[in-house]
Amino acid sequence: MVMVADSSETDTPARILVAAERLFREIGYQKTTVADIAKALRMSPANVYRFFDSKRAIHEAVARRLMGEVEIAATAIAFEDLEPVSRLRRLLASIHHMNVERYTGDEKIHQMVAMAMEEDWQVCNAHFERLTGIIGKVIDDGVKQGVFAAPDLALAAMTTATAMSRFFHPQMIAQCAHKPGPTLEQMIDFVIAALTPRHPA
Predict the structure, then answer these.
(1) Which domain holds residue 73?
(2) Do 19 and 98 fall into the same domain?
(3) Greater confidence, 100 or 140?
(4) Are residues 110 and 64 in the same domain?
(5) CA 20 to 30 Å from 2, out of 35, 98, 144, 201?
(6) Domain membership flag for residue 1
(7) pLDDT digits (tens, 9 = 90+) for 145-166
(8) In angstroms, what CA-CA distances link 69 with 31, 54, 95, 195?
(9) C-alpha distances in angstroms, 98 versus 46, 47, 67, 112, 116?
(10) 142 & 76 share domain
(11) Is the residue at 6 inside a domain?
(12) Which tops the pLDDT comparison, 72 or 181?
């Protein structure tokens, strides 16, 4: 059993989430109980329930934190000092690689996130909306510089995110890993081409 030492530098909810994520990775979400999380923190289950009213609430918060890490990194890329085409290419590839690193290499964490998405939790919907907004920022920069054409920016961002679903969605990444289809680079090339202005012959 993973034991998590007390620390005055982190607040109790954050410590609960750290312990929960470690246990989810070690024994799986289904087998982890609130009592297990409390024991790892050397506190009573009642103290855990002061901050999270159920194991599902802890589950949601862990998923939100994992997704938040991707959003923070993606936002940083969106504001990098690169021309928009290169920046969008880097952004789309990085979101894919971050999701692969977080979700597909660890079966237990993958199952946890898959369950969250299957239950259509608002945290997952909000995550994809935020990623779409981040993508939209880069497309908008490209439109302003004349390298992208997107009369409807919201639609352009949404269709770009949807086109990349096979490479963004944890379940689809795992399910499509060994199935025929475009490579990541080919899909990004397709998206870039779709956004590139058409010039009269």
Answers:
(1) 56-195
(2) no
(3) 140
(4) yes
(5) 98
(6) no
(7) 999 999 999 999 999 999 998 8
(8) 25, 23, 10, 27
(9) 35, 33, 10, 17, 18
(10) yes
(11) no
(12) 72
33-42, 126-135, 157-166, 174-183: segment of lowest average pLDDT: 174-183
The amino acid that residue 80 corresponds to is: E
For residues 63 and 22, state if they share a domain.
no
The b-or-e profile of 78-106 (16+ CB within 10 A means b, else e) is: beeebebbebbbbbbbebbebbbebbbee
Residue 18's domain is classified under what CATH number?
Answer: 1.10.10.60
